[in-house]
Amino acid sequence: MSENTNAAANAASPDTFTAGTAATPSYPGVKDLTLEEKAGLTSGGDAWHLQGVENKGIPGYMITDGPHGLRKSLATDTGDTNLDDSVPATCFPPAAGLASSWNPALAVRVGEAMGEECVQEKVAVILGPGVNIKRNPLGGRCFEYWSEDPYLAGHEAVGIVEGVQSKGVGTSLKHFAANNQETDRLRISARISPRALREIYFPAFEHIVKAAQPWTIMCSYNQINGVHSAQNHWLLTDVLRDEWGFKGIVMSDWGADHDRVASLNAGLNLEMPPSFTDDEIVYAARDGRIQPAQLDRMAQGMIDLVNKARPAMSQNDYRYDVDAHDEVAHQAAVESIVMLKNDDAILPLAADAKVAVIGEFARTPRYQGGGSSHITPTKMTGFLDTLAQRGIDATFAPGFTFADEPQSQALTDEAVAAAKSNDVVLLFLGLPEAAESEGFDRESLDIPAKQIALLEAVAAANENVVVVLSNGSVVSVAPWRDRAKGILESWLLGQAGGPALADVIFGEQSPSGKLAQSIPMSIFDDPTMMNWPGEEGHVDYGEGVFVGYRYYDTYDKPVAYPFGYGLSYATFAIADVAVTKSGANTAHVSATVTNTSDVDGAEVVQVYVAPGKADVARPRHELKGFEKVFLKAGESTTVGFDLDERAFAYWSETFDDWHVEAGEYTVEVGVSSRDIVASGVVALDGDGKAKPLTEWSTYGEWQDDPVGAKIVADMEARGRAGTLPRLPDTDIVRVFLKTLPINSMPMIKSDGGKELTAFLLDEYAKATAR
Ligand code: BGC
């Protein structure tokens, strides 16, 4: 393979590019570099480029945002942050939208398109996807994260990584880990239990690393339990590389590396943007604060990355198909829309319905979020534009302005007049751009009060109101939803949101989005609110694993709309649900889905696992599988899911490992976390892990342990036979004993308790030594 090999980017498979230096022996490796050159590779050349070693044939390729399209800054070499000035690129729906598609294959298509745009623009790595958990809907970056559920986030966003990388371009899975808020994001220490990290904050990263090997990972700004991610050896090396087998490089978030030596030792390959302190690495390597092997590993990772990108970066006249990518953005937008309400089947509208379109969002769409992901679209088609293009007549009234200023009576009057003189009102409401962005968290879940006042006025004039929402993260709907017969949650839909909405509203496509985020009745119901957004430099993740529906469903909290929910114009029936044990700790689930209506549509079959009695507090149920099925009117299909051991496990802090307890588990099949259609029970063997018994184990734990139980029985028999002291045999003693560490037995039997403790420990030592 030579630098000029014009490996067709479109045909490139990830495998073609994973070989690194092994497949490209003619390229230099670390052994060919000076100490200074190796040090240089571990920092950028400028804000958006790697630092090459040009005289040795290592180019300084460009890497840039991401994540829902390419943001290639026009002033790339200045290092200045100018978020509004970038080359045109297709603006796909940000993750808040795409996540609602529950369609990983669609994410692959979006990824492929983004990869092709990177090839044209000579960008070696696109900085995304971001798969942090939406811990609290107020989080400023929820619009570019996927879900409150790690299984969903990982199994959808993996498509972006596969798609981009199939074009010979890298991704940067970010922000590893626990960037769940913007407040104090560069300094805050997220105090998280090992269990919550493993069950909630890691799995999306873990799945994507194992399934798709992203070429790069970007560490987060924040600290986790007192250690900045860039300097966290446990995070970047022990977990990411040694446990999960990550083969790529880790880069810092922009400005997240505060100590280059410590970071490099922790496993950070690349500091971005450069602080121009490569000499620190050189000195540290000379005086032994960095071991030569570690510097070689980090620098070789950078060389491998460059080598993987070479074929795609060597294509000089590649041009992507702008219209085809706009079409991908269009379909992605259609599947991002979630229909929350459709009373009286108000939707879809007939093509000749007399419609009033009210709300500035219909004319000036809010189609992406603010901050580093802000891109310049290749096209922009709002809803009003689409109506005009399709020759659909409608009365438009802006209704309100985006500015934070009092409502104008004239705008209200105009909107009410439009509502009165038409049969149906499409009322576009939502969060103005200034209300949510990277860089700050929202303070309220509400949309501006003047928009709700407008809804009241319009609904009083015409009862046929359909609200179309534009927002990057959940907004409260409970206070006003009774005023609308229909509600479409359209998130941020990217550049083709107008045609996508028109398709759904006029029934050319059935809505098929499902919520990737619960919509609570009130933000004060959210389990994280007591610890949001932290204080004095730290935030306690006190809710543990009970994030989102894991909390609402376990503790029976009403929600406005549950996780996984979304309506369609079609109706579906799920039948023949069969749950069978397929191994000691695995199961298989199958179900038949039928479109019982006369319109085409898609349903998302969701599989949740509900553990039985457990040694730790477990959520009532957790998503462990899903599949979106597209069915024509009347059509049927069968879906199947293999649930592996992990689907039943929790992270045990005792074993410092995943643990499946023996016992019964209910496997549920449904269409939202609150709409379980059928379920089956499997009795699993358990993984056999047992905690060693000690003097601090309780009498009850001794009785529950297979080895301990025999020794206890023997001890009690000897007590009855008079060869050992005998414990009093009363109900209250039995109650006390259950929770009594055995070293406290003198509390129960003052004269012989010590002898009994010694007997148990001696016998256990003998039994376990064998
Ligand atoms: C953001 C990253 C982004 C980087 C480069 C940072 O502020 O957190 O997501 O990729 O800037 O723009």
Automatic annotation (TrEMBL):
Keyword Signal assigned: no
A GO MF term: beta-glucosidase activity
Domain of life: Bacteria
InterPro entries for the chain: Alph_arabinopyran, Cellulose_deg_GH3, Fn3-like, GH, Glyco_hydro_3_AS, Glyco_hydro_3_C, Glyco_hydro_3_C_sf, Glyco_hydro_3_N
Polar residues: bias regions: 13-24
Region of interest (Disordered), residue spans: 1-27
Gene3D superfamilies, per the entry: Glycoside hydrolase family 3 C-terminal domain, Glycoside hydrolase, family 3, N-terminal domain, Immunoglobulins
Fibronectin type III-like domain residues: 603-673
Presence of keyword Nucleus: no
One GO BP: carbohydrate metabolic process
Entry-linked SMART domains: Fn3_like (SM01217)
SUPFAM superfamilies: (Trans)glycosidases (SSF51445), Beta-D-glucan exohydrolase, C-terminal domain (SSF52279)
NCBIfam families: alph_arabinopyran
Subunit details: Homotetramer.
UniProt function note: Catalyzes the hydrolysis of a non-reducing terminal alpha-L-arabinopyranosidic linkage in ginsenoside Rb2 (alpha-L-arabinopyranosyl-(1->6)-alpha-D-glucopyranosyl) to release alpha-D-glucopyranosyl (Rd). It is not able to hydrolyze alpha-L-arabinofuranosyl-(1->6)-alpha-D-glucopyranosyl (Rc).
Family classification: Belongs to the glycosyl hydrolase 3 family.
Protein name according to UniProt: Exo-alpha-(1->6)-L-arabinopyranosidase
Organism the protein comes from: Bifidobacterium primatium
Organism lineage: Bacteria, Bacillati, Actinomycetota, Actinomycetes, Bifidobacteriales
